[in-house]
Specification:
Blueprint: E1 2-5, E2 11-14, H1 34-45, H2 53-76, H3 90-127
Antiparallel strand pairs: 1-2
Amino acid sequence: MSTGERNDGEHVVQAPPILRPDAQEGGAPDGMGVVESYNAVAETVGFMPSMRVRDNVLQIVFVVAVTGVCALVGWYSTGQSGATAWTMPRQTGALIAGVIGLIASTFLSGLVLMVLGFVRALRRRGDRPRRG
């Protein structure tokens, strides 16, 4: 905070200016907003969460679908009498298969989004004019 002096000799404390999220101050390059510059860094560096709504929606839809399919497979593959059936209650089979599907689909979708982010970063790097 900066201090100033009024005409009557009192010191006045001034608050710093409030910046909008899309403000260009602070080093956002090439007219990109704060979110776009964050996404560019996240895609270039990797191992950072994506702030793209589309990516996050696709990931949650994929995770929920795969988890549901795995839970159904677990439900129908248990609790039956037969040579191929497991001998445990259907609910237990659905729960175990659903958790396995949840973990596997989360890692798989994260891997796909990571590769997609690297591809986006390479395309963006190729679009820039070469220096020197």
